């Protein structure tokens, strides 16, 4: 009979083993300060000499670090010290110090701290984002400098905005054209009964600022499809869509693709939901996911575009606050990953079925002929504003770059006139499609629906070239396209920047910064002084 010797463990080895176990099971997180020595002596029932001997053994094993006149701090458990921690723990329990070959590793699996991330011990009493410092991939500066555009402030938008504010995303821009009603209160965490008839975007922005006064917010009570300039998209890090109609999703998808910006879409209905990330040039985009019938339904260029647009915007989908929290949480998490440069799965959709608690991911197939797959070239920043710059001004600038054949393309249809086939009357309108209601399309004399004459190009032959860009539906800080049949140029109304993108709403310092350098372009000589677009970055037209 082979008799094993009885192991005699010192008291300090037992104490070191118990502390090592606390590191392995997560009771002591990386960077956390250990209790004071007198508290540890009382908890463990040992003398100061025994405790210090145990702490010294842990320090030599790389498990804790001493800070003179401060205390002891737990180190991260990684491949460099995990074996020693297990050895100390097993030795204290009288177990083998080396696990068998088929024995699974004990203790939770941990993501090692990135080597380039400096160790920072936050003050959890004063730093509201302090616990995030314990996340190995978390980069505070990136998150606090990030700019995120949230389109839609309904049930989904409320949860996304709440999450972004709590995570400390530094700049949040909220867009919604709707107002709050009683039915919103059952699924919108940021709204109150006293908010009835107030702007969703404004109230959501104010409540986000109240949740975290350290962030900066801005809101727009308007339609993202027509009232938000592309220059805003151009300056965002991530766009999050919390929308309930295809028209708005398609517009956001195209704007993001044109500006080469990622966006996160979400959709909910009752207990069902989905979330997906779209990154230009990486897999399918939103338009790739639409059927031919869906694309036809979305087209506004048929016999009655006014009615088509109105019907599209009427849809309302029943939902619950629980599914909004689930999908809104996934969207916020994907946005956080994009901000921190972590891998995502663009062109795929996460389906969640709350009826049976199932979740699965499916990949979309990218369409080679997708109309959204076009990214703008180099953008020329002009000291011009939509409110003061005329169509003639923009045409002059474009022709200085592209020649006399250049034309301007508008992003939305412009109604030039309404013609009544019964009364044979013609009303000159010159308003963007979004600004003319279905009711206004009827003849005031006979009541019949009138024919709509539309255009989306400015050729120089128009008798309304004196009209300003804003009067024909061009939003502030927008980017206009011009081409001569062979190449495109892109011009941003950068003079609108101070007022169009400021993130100063609800700041104690006061109102948004005033616009500077208001410029009205009046002559060819003035045009010569404007910046010219270099040859690089030009987008060629297909033959």
Write up what this structure looks like.
It is a single chain. The chain is elongated. It has three domains: 11-121, Winged helix-like DNA-binding domain superfamily/Winged helix DNA-binding domain (Arc Repressor Mutant, subunit A, Orthogonal Bundle); 140-289 and 319-363, NAD(P)-binding Rossmann-like Domain (Rossmann fold, 3-Layer(aba) Sandwich); 379-540, no CATH class. Residues 96-114, 300-305, 311-315 and 510-543 have low confidence and may be disordered. Strand 1 and strand 2 (71-74) form a beta hairpin. The protein has 15 helices and 17 strands. With 543 residues, the chain is an alpha/beta fold. Helix 1 (11-24) packs across helix 4 (82-93), helix 6 (155-166) packs parallel to helix 7 (200-211) and helix 6 packs across helix 12. The strands form three sheets. Strands 5-4-3-6-7-8-9-10 form an eight-stranded mixed beta sheet, sandwiched between helices.
Please specify the SSE layout and strand pairing.
Blueprint: H1 11-24, H2 37-44, H3 48-60, E1 64-67, E2 71-74, H4 82-93, H5 140-145, E3 147-151, H6 155-166, E4 171-175, H7 200-211, E5 216-220, H8 230-234, E6 238-241, H9 246-259, E7 263-269, E8 272-278, H10 292-298, H11 305-312, H12 321-339, E9 348-353, E10 358-363, E11 379-382, H13 391-402, E12 407-419, E13 426-432, E14 451-458, E15 479-483, E16 487-493, H14 497-500, H15 524-528, E17 539-540
Helix pairs in contact: 1-3, 1-4, 6-7, 6-12
């Amino acid at each position: 009979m082979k008799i094993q010797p009885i192991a005699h463990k010192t008291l300090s080895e037992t104490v070191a083993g118990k502390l090592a176990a606390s590191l392995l099971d997560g009771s002591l997180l990386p960077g956390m300060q250990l209790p004071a020595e007198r508290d540890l002596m009382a908890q463990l029932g040992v003398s100061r000499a025994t405790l210090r001997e145990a702490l010294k053994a842990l320090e030599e094993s790389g498990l804790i670090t001493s800070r003179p006149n401060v205390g002891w701090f737990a180190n991260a458990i990684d491949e460099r010290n995990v074996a020693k921690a297990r050895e100390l723990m097993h030795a204290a329990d009288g177990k083998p110090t080396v696990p068998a070959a088929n024995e699974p590793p004990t203790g939770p699996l941990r993501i090692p701290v990135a080597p380039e991330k400096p160790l920072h011990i936050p003050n959890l009493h004063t730093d509201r984002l302090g616990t995030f410092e314990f996340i190995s991939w978390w980069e505070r500066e990136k998150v606090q400098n990030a700019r995120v555009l949230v389109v839609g402030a309904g049930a989904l938008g409320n949860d996304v905005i709440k999450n972004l504010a709590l995570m400390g995303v530094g700049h949040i821009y909220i867009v919604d054209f709707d107002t709050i009603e009683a039915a919103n209160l059952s699924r919108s965490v940021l709204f109150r009964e006293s908010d009835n008839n107030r702007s969703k975007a404004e109230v959501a922005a104010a409540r986000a600022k109240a949740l975290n006064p350290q962030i900066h917010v801005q809101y727009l009570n308007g339609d993202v499809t027509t009232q938000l300039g592309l220059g805003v998209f151009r300056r965002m890090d991530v766009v999050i869509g919390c929308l309930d109609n295809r028209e708005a999703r398609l517009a956001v998808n195209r704007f993001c693709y044109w500006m080469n910006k990622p966006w996160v879409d979400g959709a909910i209905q009752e207990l069902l939901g989905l979330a997906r990330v779209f990154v230009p040039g990486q897999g399918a985009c939103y338009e790739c996911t639409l059927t031919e019938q869906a694309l036809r339904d979305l087209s506004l260029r048929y016999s009655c575009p006014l009615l088509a647009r109105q019907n599209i915007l009427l849809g309302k989908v029943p939902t619950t606050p629980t599914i909004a929290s689930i999908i809104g949480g996934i969207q916020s998490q994907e946005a956080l990953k994009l901000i921190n440069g972590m891998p995502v799965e663009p062109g795929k959709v996460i389906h969640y079925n709350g009826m049976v608690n199932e979740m699965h991911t499916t990949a979309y197939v990218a369409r080679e002929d997708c109309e959204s797959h076009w990214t703008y070239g180099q953008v020329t920043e002009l000291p011009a504003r939509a409110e003061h710059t005329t169509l003639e001004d923009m045409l002059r600038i474009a022709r200085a770059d592209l020649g006399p054949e250049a034309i301007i393309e508008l992003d939305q249809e412009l109604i030039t006139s309404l013609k009544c086939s019964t009364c044979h009357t013609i009303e000159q309108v010159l308003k963007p499609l979004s600004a003319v209601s279905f009711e206004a399309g009827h003849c005031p004399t006979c009541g019949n629906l009138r024919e709509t004459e539309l255009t989306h190009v400015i050729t120089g032959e128009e008798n309304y070239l004196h009209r300003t860009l804003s009067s024909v539906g061009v939003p502030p800080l927008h980017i206009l396209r011009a081409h001569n049949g062979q190449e495109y140029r892109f011009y941003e109304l950068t003079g609108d920047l101070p007022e169009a993108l400021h993130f100063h709403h609800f700041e104690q310092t006061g109102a948004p910064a005033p616009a500077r350098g208001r410029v009205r372009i009046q002559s060819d000589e003035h045009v010569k002084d404007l910046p010219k677009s270099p040859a690089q970055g030009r987008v060629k037209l297909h033959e």
